[in-house]
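Encode chain A's predicted structure.
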Amino acid sequence: MLKQYITRTFLNNLLLGNGALVGLIILYNLLAMLIPIVKLTWPMIILVFILINAILIGLKVIVPLINQQRQP
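Encoded structure for chain A:
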């Protein structure tokens, strides 16, 4: 069942999204060095990746199920 939802295109988009997140986190940490108000630690970075991936995978599975229920 999961193979129809987690496709190669989805994994490529997930990888691209994670790459963008890595870039944003690096930029954020560089900014935090200049303005030391809040700084992300490695455990927080890992937690952010896990949460965002869980949300993306959840949306990938839930949206088609909702669409199937709406069809008569």
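The helical segments are 2-5, 8-34, 42-70.
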